[in-house]
User: Fold this.
Amino acid sequence: RVRTAELGQTRIAPGPDQHVGVGALFPVEVMLDRGGGWRIYSAEEDCYLWQIEGEEIDSWLAEPALLHWIALGLQDEQRRIRESAAELTRARQLSDQVLAMPARSFAASKLECVESTRSIGDVAALMAQRKVGSLLVGSPAAVEGIVTQTDLVVRGLATRMAPDMPVSQVMTQAPRMLDDTASVLEAGIEMAQNHCRHLLLRSSEGQVVGLVSERDIFRAQQHGVEHVFKPIDEARSVAELVDLASRVQELAQRVFRQGMEVSQFMRLVSSMNGRISRRLLRVLAAEKKVDARFCWLAFGSEAREEQGFVTDQDNGIVFVAPTADATEPVRTALLEFAVAANDALDACGFPRCKGNIMAGNPEWCLSLDEWKAKFSAWIRSTTPKALLNAAIFFDLRATHGDEGLADAMLDHLLGAAKGNTIFLHQMAINALEVAPPIGRISRFATEGGRHGETIDLKTQGSRLFVDTARIYALANGVRSANTAERLRVVGQRIKRSLSAIEGDIAAFRFVQAIRLRRQLESIRDGGDPNRVDPYSLDELQQRILRESLRQALSLQSRLKVDYRP
Assistant:
């Protein structure tokens, strides 16, 4: 096997985890590239390489079957590029968010102080003992200066200053200070403009409460991307991933409190959770080998990339057995793998689905033909169970394995649903059974009873947008599962005004933001993560929430026009 590396003018190259296997050709673009582009391939072990002359390749390219194969290969390559670009975008969003965090999040809060009369030798010994690179001279309430290892070397050792000289002779006087509310970005700009490597953070009372270094700023930027993603990608055991999953949860809570835009936040969380799931599945797949093409599927909010702080498992498996007789043996092997994966995901903080919609359930570990048959049966049926299954399983996305199988499922689904007006009509009736909780006299129609004066922002809030967007996506052949993307695309297809489309998306995001805040609170108080007392919100938030629910009502009104009950 050989690993590829991108060099020179190469525009496209497989990622670091993709290999050219035994008996395979080098990437298609190598054959087609007649220019000066070049690549280096490093063999991981002894191997034979066969060189094929250009004339022979030209004759191959005249064969329709080969051209079709090349087209498929290029499509796969383009998909990998799109996924890499999306991952890079998410990483940059996280990095940008970290730069907006308070610098004190990464600063040293335990300040080491020395008197200005302390000798240089004592200070150097103290730094070595405490394993720090700088010390505050004076006290947090009365700062005289700061001394760093660089000060000791440049102003002390390099000038042959005696070790018993007071540290005041080498310290940096009047060090730069910033308010402790300053962001990581502001601290970095301050350092760059004033050519300094350390800043003191000062509280509103005027006391120094932290020290941030240039190294802390770099660590903050790394923390935004590398310190989150890289350990996950390199994890070698379920135990490692369990620990990393708890850190991801802590990071998610921190960046949400710092005000990350809700759609970016949900995609970030979904991306990090998906990364954990993919790595976990790869680790387990290496232990429990299955001799068949298969794909691990995500359903529901994970497929829509709309996960928050409280989410359970909704997953399944699609496979293709090498022969018809091998279907049951393959299913048995996959179920063993799936049960272990469901257990491991639960340990990582993704609770088991209460409805048992998990790959370890034989009902959801199916061949491609079996999945297609189920989809077709649900679309032909108008029973409540079929409509419920449609709402759960028709939002799907590949997590691990042969993504082509998930694409084939989606192709079949969109083809079967697009022209079935009876099915779409029944889905619309089902979606319209839940109305936005807007009061005629008061602002909100709260439920009362055992639920108190609350509304369910999942059933009576975000679901209103999700269900409507799904119906129109199925009717218009839209492949995306993300609700905001669906609202934008189908809004244009059904000739909804631009202002209405943007209103739909903004309203959905605001409802999700309030719901996410409640989920974060529920982690502490143990209450229902979706139930909110709307009157506990401030006056402005109440008004925006009511208008957001009125926007959902507008969207439902359009659904009634297109699919009259």
